[in-house]
Amino acid sequence: MNLSTLFLVLAAMCVSSCRQISAKTKSVPHRIISVTITGDVYLQALVDSSRVLAVCALADDSGIHEAAGLFPGKPRIGPDLEKIISMRPDLVLIGSFHDQAFVDGIKKSGLDYEILDSPNSLDKIRSYLKKVAVRLGEPAKGDSLVRWMDSLLAEVKQHADRCSDHPKTLYWSEGFTSGDSSTIGDLLQVAGVRNAAAEAGIHGSQTIAVEDVLRIQPDWILRSSWEGGTMKPLPSALADLAATKAGRIAVVSGKLLLSTSHRCALAADSLVRKLHPHCQ
């Protein structure tokens, strides 16, 4: 290898190394915008308000937001690409559910961004919380939140272990349910009950027919509520279920039951108390 070739090889190695270092050491963001509920909750738990430019448009909706009213005085913003760019953030928290055109616009704008996926397990919530905490420059706070989450989940499991019954519980949400490979499935397991949907072979969030619910004959029906909203009544055909006749319908806050943050542990605490009413 002649000197000229050796120089080019070394230069290429240097550039590659510098790129890797740069990718691993992104600067800590100080001008952050969130356009998702989960992003808002992460920011409230992990960073000082001075680092937050704006939070999502639903930030004051106590019906669905896990921590409504957070960051008072901060602008509320939706997926408005032009407005977001004009605010010159150094990090934008967006959701995997957002319109692809908006996501593509963020990517093409050159703004730094983090797409917050929807974890389908407690393990994924833990790992994602840690990942976002590192991205926000607050790894220690992320670890602390995971410890808080696991501490509460451990207390719930200890409570459940004292209960001799393990009722077969079916989550029902307007014709949808959650089997295995789902956060709700994990929460039911922590609460010491059987996931009727998982036992019926349902994976993740899926539709379920009324006829299948009648066939499964759950001991309890789990529903999620929303503050300020009204739940539709169960289909009339489910009135003949033993669980319905006995009033074994547990209602848990949807903001917590469907949470993709550390606050999902609060749903587990509610579940164990509602599904084991005689074991306190």
Structure report:
With 280 residues, the chain is an alpha/beta fold. The chain has two domains: 86 residues, Nitrogenase molybdenum iron protein domain (Rossmann fold, 3-Layer(aba) Sandwich); 129 residues, Rossmann fold. Helix content is 44%, strand content 15%. The strands form three sheets. The protein has a five-stranded parallel β-sheet, sandwiched between helices. Helix 4 links the parallel strand 4 and strand 5. Helix 5 runs antiparallel to helix 6 and helix 6 packs parallel to helix 12. The radius of gyration is 23 Å and the shape is elongated. The termini are far apart. The N terminus is likely disordered.
Supply the key terms.
280 residues, alpha/beta, Rossmann fold, five-stranded parallel sheet, 12 helices, 11 strands, elongated
